[in-house]
Automatic annotation (TrEMBL):
Family of the protein in this entry: Belongs to the metallo-beta-lactamase superfamily.
Single GO molecular function: hydrolase activity
Gene3D superfamilies attached to this UniProt entry: Ribonuclease Z/Hydroxyacylglutathione hydrolase-like
Domain Metallo-beta-lactamase: start-end pairs: 113-141
Domain of life: Eukaryota
InterPro entries attached to this UniProt entry: MBL_superfamily_lactonases, Metallo-B-lactamas, RibonucZ/Hydroxyglut_hydro
One family name in Pfam for this protein: Lactamase_B
Record carries keyword Hydrolase: yes
Protein name: Metallo-beta-lactamase domain-containing protein
Obligatory cofactor(s): Zn(2+)
């Protein structure tokens, strides 16, 4: 697949970061589930390193995992029991500083300083197990899906109550939203859907130069992708359904090698293989709901990711899909954890 220009292809590297663990009740995520089983899963973050034209490296972190002190909103704290046991022994900042325990090259000295060495942070979506501790990164520019800042402040409808968010979760003057996505149908067009927040006049964001021309374009089976650095090395992928503003990343690691960071497109690898489908559970009001705001949109997003992967593999590419909460992947890939790489 060609890059965005005729220049030589640019490749990034990716390293996984431990950022806490939580437990997922299986019945909430997949069909035909054990009604009492809970699975302890990682909340993975990822360090993406992009070569700069001047010979340096831009450091980007995708998702921040759990807050190490669990200082969430009162409503969030009241619901933490659902996700227990929870561990925050290692958070994103510590993984960056010292490397991930068990990874090759991990050490007690400082590998990367979260306060100084991280240029960009992309948050996949507003849920508590992905937003981490933003204050650990006082010099980074944050980037989020359109509507995310409004979602933090006001919530969005019956399945996204504002009580379950922290209104100033991200630094307003250092956060930029990706452009809005135009789509037909109801999703994202409801009266309560969160609104896009433009960059304020006194903003301190320092996005990559390509931000001046960011726009959503199709890439294979993915209808809306955005070339983050403008060189075909890292694409932001609009993935509606889980929650408003949800985005994934597609990274180019080699001539014919992609890694797809799927965040919460799904929470169990058996949904990718087709062994399971998205589960429904009691909504507390006599009905049923899924873990997604819109199960149809979420299913469509996942289907497109799988279709993209199969199409690329048919053309001789490899596509590795990595979920944010996959304990099997984490167990099998200690070598891919910082300072190791995928």
């Amino acid at each position: 697949m060609a890059t965005a220009s005729d220049s030589p292809p640019v490749f990034v590297t990716i390293s996984a970061l431990d950022a806490g663990c939580l437990s997922l009740p299986e019945r909430m995520f997949v069909t035909d589930a054990d009604p009492v089983k809970k699975n302890l899963v990682p909340t993975l973050s990822f360090l993406i390193r992009h070569p700069s034209p001047d010979g340096g490296v831009a450091n980007l972190v995708f998702d921040l995992g759990m807050k190490r002190d669990l200082e969430y909103s009162p409503a969030q704290k009241e619901r933490l029991y659902v996700w227990e046991p929870i561990t925050t022994d290692t958070d994103c900042a510590q993984s960056l500083r010292n490397g991930v325990a068990g990874a090759p090259g991990a050490q007690s000295g400082v590998l990367l300083d979260p306060a100084k060495d991280i240029d960009y942070i992309i948050i996949s979506h507003a849920h508590f197990d992905h937003t981490g501790t933003p204050s650990d990164f006082p010099s980074a520019t944050f980037a989020v899906g359109s509507g995310t800042l409004d979602l933090f402040k006001n919530g969005a409808g019956p399945l996204c109550s504002g009580d379950f968010f922290i209104d100033d979760e991200l630094p307003a003057l250092r956060t930029i939203e990706f452009p809005p996505v135009s789509r037909a149908g109801t999703y994202g067009n409801e009266p309560y859907a969160p609104k896009h927040t433009p960059v304020p006049a006194n903003s301190k964001v320092k996005p990559p130069a390509a931000a001046a021309s960011w726009s959503w374009k199709p890439l294979g089976e993915l209808p809306n992708t955005l070339d983050f650095f403008g060189d075909g090395s890292l694409y932001v992928v609009d993935t509606p359904g889980h929650i408003y503003g949800h985005v994934n990343l597609l990274a180019r690691l080699g001539e014919k090698r992609w890694v797809y960071l799927a965040a919460d497109c799904c929470h169990d690898r058996r949904l990718i293989t087709g062994e399971k489908n998205i589960g429904l559970y009691d909504d507390g009001n006599g009905g049923q709901r899924s873990i997604h705001v819109d199960i149809g949109e979420a299913r469509g997003s996942l289907d497109r990711v799988v279709a993209f992967s199969k199409s690329q593999e048919a053309q001789g590419f490899t596509v590795e899909i990595v979920l944010a909460h996959d304990p099997i992947w984490r167990k099998e890939n200690a070598h891919a954890c910082w300072p190791g790489k995928m």
